[in-house]
Amino acid sequence: MVLRLKMVKIAEDKGISEATRLYETTRNTIRKWLRRYRKEGLEGLKDESKAPKFI
Predict the structure, then answer these.
(1) In the prediction, which pLDDT does 49 show?
(2) Global confidence as pTM
């Protein structure tokens, strides 16, 4: 979670391109963490369950 928070902060401060370069990841990954962080705060940076969702 700490790494994800660092990526989000760099993306907010210096832009997505800089964050992708520094962390050697894709723009989509950075965007995903930014979106989740903005919507849910720190909780959004936690791992989500990979288990199937049943109704």
Answers:
(1) 75
(2) 0.79
